[in-house]
Amino acid sequence: MRSRVEISGINTARLPVLKNDEMTVLLRRAKAGDTSAREKLICGNLRLVLSVLQRFAGRGESPDDLFQVGCIGLMKAIDNFDVNQPVRFSTYGVPMIVGEIRRYLRDNSSLRVSRSLRDTAYRVMQAREALMSENQREPTVEEIAASIGVTPEAAAMTLQVMRWFNIFSLFSWPSSFTLPNILRAAGDASFTMSVSIVSMWIFRVGFCYLMVLCFHGQLLSIWMGMFLDWVFRSLCFAVRFVRGKWLEQHVI
Fold this sequence. Notes:
The chain is mainly alpha-helical. Helix content is 72%, strand content 2%. Strands 1-2 form a two-stranded antiparallel sheet. Helix 6 crosses helix 8 (152-171). It is flat and about 65 Å long. The chain starts with 5 loop residues before the first strand and ends in a 9-residue tail after the last helix.
């Protein structure tokens, strides 16, 4: 990361550092509505944001983007900090910055499951465990569905999707999305972009469209198209990496 030189256009070597007494005075002034004091607090605590960014190094995210998101967390911490509490600002600010960055990473991840599906899956698993404990046997799909108030079809499909999702996200997703980042960093961007576009149109669009027509819009059909997209990308990128074609590219 470029924390020692420049990040988001800011020369980090020249960032000011505030003493505890200065911090307290500025926090009280900012709480009273002094915008200049708030700006000084932000500038004086940017090193705090940089220290938090070190925890998220190596995730393939842009340091500039994470720095800006961290600054949002810093501003929230400044606005919500209670100067009357016997707590150092850094103790309060670090969790706020970390939480803001984690929220950004979660909301912008390529690997996402809809909240409704996650909630239904969680309820299904909870009901399954409760029924197993109560009846000392594996519950049927109908029993699980009745206990949480959904149709048996919805319960069965939720279990199917989450089962396949866990399998493919463990084995196929890393090589289909992390490996191309390595190839792009080595200058092999044209190949990775071509494979991604072709795979998306064949599997996520074409295959899903056919499956929806055949199975009347079932959710599992759409997810199967995504899983096949992951597998195809994984195979293409793995073969490219093993053959060493990416070594023939030149970054500069």
